[in-house]
Amino acid sequence: MGFDLDKMYCGKIRRGDLFIYEVNEVEKLAVVLQDDILNEGLPTVICAMVEPYKVGEEVFPNEVMLEKKVTGFDKDGICMLHKIITVDRRKMIAKKGELSQEKLFEVLEALDINLGRFRDQ
Questions:
Q1: Is 66 within the bounds of a domain?
Q2: Does a structural domain hold residue 4?
Q3: Burial class, 106, CB count within 10 angstroms (exposed 0-12 / middle 13-18 / buried 19+)
Q4: Cα 6 from Cα 104, distance rounded (Å)
Q5: CA dihedral 112, 67, 43, 23 (to 10 degrees)
Q6: 53 close to 75: Cβ distance less than 8 angstroms
Q7: Which pLDDT score is estimated for 72?
Q8: What is the CATH number of the domain that holds 85?
Q9: What does pTM read for this prediction?
Q10: pLDDT average, residue stretch 8-30
Q11: Among the listed ranges 49-53, 72-76, 83-87, which one has the minimum average pLDDT value?
């Protein structure tokens, strides 16, 4: 398996960043969930998939709506906290943006719901 190093993102990766990554020669969007310190040293990054939002589609408590100004595309998206993936950082192509602190907290709260952490209190 070869990597196109010219396409690979070489900058800093931080929690809350939105990235385009490549899987099976298809480009997809994801939100970085992994801690910044781990992002500095690990060859992989834990992310949540972002899928296009379809008008009228229900957004569940373990999902977060991302407006098009946040996604960097011409469409709104849904951050799917039930679709957590590990991405080889060599497959991360481009940073599209970063979540505001408020939106990142929404994402982390939805992740807590998905993991059942509300039951731990």
A1: yes
A2: no
A3: middle
A4: 30
A5: 110
A6: yes
A7: 82
A8: 2.30.30.110
A9: 0.88
A10: 90
A11: 72-76
115: containing domain = 17-120
Helices in the chain by DSSP H: which ranges? 36-41, 68-71, 101-115
In a domain, 92, yes or no: yes
CA angle 79, 59, 47 (to 5 degrees): 15
Q: Which of 10-14, 30-34, 37-41, 90-94 has the highest mean pLDDT?
A: 30-34
Determine the straight-line distance between the first and last CA of the chain, rounded to whole angstroms: 45
Q: How far apart are CA 78 and CA 59, in angstroms?
A: 8
Q: Are 49 and 66 in contact (CB under 8 A)?
A: no
Query: What is the count of structural domains for the chain?
Result: 1
Does 1 map to a domain? no
Rounded Cα distance, 114 and 80, in Å:
10
